[in-house]
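Colleagues,

For the teaching module next term, I've prepared a clean inverse folding example: a structure given as tokens, and then the sequence designed for it. I'd like students to try predicting residues themselves before seeing the answer, so please don't circulate the second half yet.
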């Protein structure tokens, strides 16, 4: 099956992000299409089928939140070996759902997506928990009886103290109740794209990856305005001085009312970019 062109992929991603109930797995797989030229519609279908297959291996209605968490840990953590380690932070593939499904390795947030999508298909009361620096999953009522599990560690159950330790280790701050709230699908996708941007930022030769991650983020209904500035800077860095300068000027207009000094700095960058054409 032929691969969609850039415009068709972006349109499909934007449309999927604006669904009343966004399909988290589909959005993650469309992110994968940007990174992997070998991923086509057939590959997306195969990844969705694999999630269905894994869900079919779970016991029917095993019990309460603890039972669901234990069942997922046995299936995904023990039987199929889904987990992560330090080396996985160095791979772009650790942020791509189709690659994580194949390798059984990934970042905490992508492994959590696998857990959530498999558990959801089996009828589990599951949700994502966007702890600072370490994404995990929850089962049950997030505002009542629930349990947390860490897919990065094969599904290890997390007590409140364990969660607090993860947060403290990542930020030095204490755990707050708001950190345990369910993460929305679009928030999860934006965090995945932020991870990809961070991966590419540490590799100056991969501005191509950083650019498409920014551009996909801008297609989400809600995103930080600063991403427009980052895209303009990337365009200039990649040699598209005219377009980059134009977008820098447009961003300066946006921030003029609240940050006039910053707007003037951005305009100076735009003039410098245009000068590169001379």
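(Answer key — instructors only)
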């Amino acid at each position: 099956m032929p691969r969609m062109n850039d415009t068709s992929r972006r349109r499909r991603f934007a449309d999927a992000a604006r669904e009343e109930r966004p399909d988290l797995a589909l959005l993650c797989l469309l992110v994968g299409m940007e990174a992997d030229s070998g991923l086509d519609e057939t590959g997306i279908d195969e990844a969705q089928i694999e999630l269905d297959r894994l869900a079919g291996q779970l016991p029917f209605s095993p019990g309460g939140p603890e039972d669901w968490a234990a069942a997922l840990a046995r299936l995904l953590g023990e039987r199929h070996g889904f987990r992560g380690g330090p080396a996985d932070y160095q791979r772009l593939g650790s942020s791509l759902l189709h690659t994580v499904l194949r390798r059984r390795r990934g970042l905490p947030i992508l492994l959590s997506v696998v857990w959530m999508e498999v558990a959801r298909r089996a009828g589990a009361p599951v949700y994502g928990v966007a702890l600072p620096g370490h994404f995990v999953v929850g089962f049950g009522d997030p505002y009542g009886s629930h349990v947390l599990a860490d897919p990065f560690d094969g599904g290890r159950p997390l007590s409140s103290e364990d969660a607090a330790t993860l947060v403290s280790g990542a930020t030095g701050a204490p755990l707050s109740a708001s950190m345990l709230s369910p993460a929305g699908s679009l928030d999860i996708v934006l965090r995945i794209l932020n991870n990809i941007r961070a991966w590419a930022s540490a590799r100056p030769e991969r501005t191509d990856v950083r650019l498409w991650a920014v551009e996909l983020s801008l297609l989400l209904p809600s995103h930080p305005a600063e991403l427009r500035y980052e895209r303009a800077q990337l365009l200039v860095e990649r040699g598209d001085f005219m377009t980059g300068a134009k977008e820098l000027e447009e961003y300066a207009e946006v921030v003029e009312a609240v940050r006039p000094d910053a707007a003037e700095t951005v305009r100076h960058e735009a003039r410098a970019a245009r000068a590169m054409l001379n």
